[in-house]
Amino acid sequence: MSTLLRVDSVDAGYGDFQALFGIDLDVAEGELLALVGANGAGKSTLLKTIAGALKPFRGTIGLAGEDVTAEPDIRRARKGVCLVPEGRRLFPSLTVEENLQVGAATGRKGPWNLAKVYEAMPLVADRRTRKAARLSGGEQQAVAIGRALMGNPRLLLLDEVSLGLAPLVVDQLYTALPGIRAEGATVILVEQDLNRTFAVADRIACVLEGRIVLTGTAAGLTRDQVTAAYFGTG
Ligand code: ATP
């Protein structure tokens, strides 16, 4: 399968602080990659760098063979790179439907529209006329994903979307993933729950203190290997 994303020798961080060291990562078209690692390991920083919200100190980000390192997040969104960050960041005074329409305005053309999002995420459909400020955390998270889908992501980056949500809501979010992939999205997600990670991922990459210390297919890795990499005891 062809490579959609190529992260090559990336160092990144904030001001003088370096959070990522020599990250190399290839993700194939259609793949679902899970990033795991302890708090502060650098997972969010890596997603932000891939999305273009953070410019790397060195190294390159390639998308479908094109070097996009110099392109800011808005330009990458037009090419289908979409980050759903930790914490939901909806427009609180807009309704659910209006928030979804914002996603369509910033993304690219493709199969996703309001009807399809509502079909894939019944939780979102039920709340379509409600103001975002009046939604529960789980509902907001679902809308944030729906909004990303409206931009027809080619590469969807999900940062701990299940954090703090009730298991039932998380189940609903995960139930939508196969449909999202069927529409052609490649997915990188950060997930703390190893059971969910192994259930959903094709491949797993473990981040420890700013470095990728282990990668492998979900079928080829054991939980013990991933746990050891997570704690740096491998
Ligand atoms: P978490 O699950 O806690 O979000 P993470 O693996 O996503 O963990 P990052 O958020 O990428 O980790 O953080 C990596 C390192 O960068 C940490 O040491 C963190 O304190 C630091 N960091 C993150 N955001 C900023 C920022 N805006 N300014 C300065 N340092 C930051």
UniProtKB/TrEMBL annotation:
Protein name, as recorded: ABC transporter ATP-binding protein
Similarity comment: Belongs to the ABC transporter superfamily.
Domain ABC transporter: 5-234
Alphabetical list of CDD domains matching this protein: ABC_TM1139_LivF_branched (cd03224)
Organism, as annotated: Streptomyces griseoruber
Coiled coil feature spans: none
Any GO BP: L-amino acid transport
Pfam families in alphabetical order: ABC_tran (PF00005)
Keywords: Amino-acid transport, ATP-binding, Nucleotide-binding, Transport
Presence of the UniProt keyword Nucleotide-binding in the record: yes
Molecular-function GO term, any one: ATP binding
